[in-house]
């Protein structure tokens, strides 16, 4: 029973970590696009 709980917790941690990485990537992409748009407008 305890082992099962540990497995579930580990799975959740991995899922959260992966979600965090993908979110970070998308946020950086949005910032990059916005910076590009701003540069284009300034030029």
Automatic annotation (TrEMBL):
Superkingdom field: Bacteria
Record-given protein name: Uncharacterized protein
Organism: Candidatus Kentrum sp. LPFa
């Amino acid at each position: 029973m305890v082992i099962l709980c540990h497995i579930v917790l580990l799975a959740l941690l991995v899922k959260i970590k992966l979600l965090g990485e993908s979110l970070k990537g998308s946020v950086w992409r949005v910032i990059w696009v916005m910076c590009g748009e701003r540069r284009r407008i300034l030029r």
